[in-house]
Request: fold
Amino acid sequence: MNGTLQNGGLGRRITKEYKTELSMLAIFVVFFVVLSFASPYFFTSQNIMNVMSQVSSTSLLAIGMTIVIITSGIDLSVGATLGLSGMVGCMVLMNTQNVLLGILVMLAVSVAVGLVNGILIGYLQLPAFIVTLGTMQICRSLDYVISNANTASKFPEVYSVLGKGKIGGVFPVYILFIFGAFAVFIWVMGKTKFGRFLYAIGSNAESSRLTGINVKFNVMMAYVISGLMCGLAAWMMTSRLMACDATYGDGNEMDAIAAAVIGGTSMSGGKGTLWGTIVGVFLVGFLRNALNILGVNPYWQGTAIGAVIVIAVLAEKLSKLKVKKTAKN
Reply:
């Protein structure tokens, strides 16, 4: 009897803590079922693997974006950082044919951009929106300058292992890599002091400072992590395509923000989980895929994603108002 009560209490607690995530999961399931009936091409192994491939880089960007937004920040530079780090790393790889060196340069560039963002936002306390908007423009410009708008290619075949390799000839390596990354940062955000500090900073930075948390350092590290995820995303994208173009990463910041917000991460900070971000990534990915399969004009895709972001933010706002009203009563 006690076990039943405890299980019931646990179920209610999980439902309460992950209300938004479970709601979005339910919406995703309904959406998936409806589209499966609407198109015979939607619920097929080939299409599902196609979507998984398309969202592979976005999912990594979304991890960093979620962590940054939890601190009450934003990183508009993730797509451009992916593009710049990918281009620099791939040019080194193309000219040296040294895979390890190319990957290290890729990660070094992306972490450096994240570090610059983190210092300007964390230590100098400049507005995150303005700083990352500036670095987005700088990175995108440098991407074209460095590459001269040309494509980097002709890499060693071994470089394709992450993007095209399969374990046992069946299971894609990149899927294992993505879920491994999510597992690591779910643990970091839920089980470490660093993760708890980020939630506290997002809820109230001044109170966090007064309790002894090094707000400036922890905010900086959030952007460094975001930069690192950009480098990993660049590695995955270029490994999958075995080339790098100056347009890579263009607009990816919107999908990363959409995935985080749709997954329940509050734009005001202090609330959100990477579990929800996983749901958000797949919802955005399958939404784009469904629009393509149904023959919807590609120019409407941005409208659809934007509408979903606005609805998610509105739902969060209405939920907060409802909680405040209930508390007053």
User: Anything to note?
Assistant: The first strand starts at residue 166 and ends at 167.
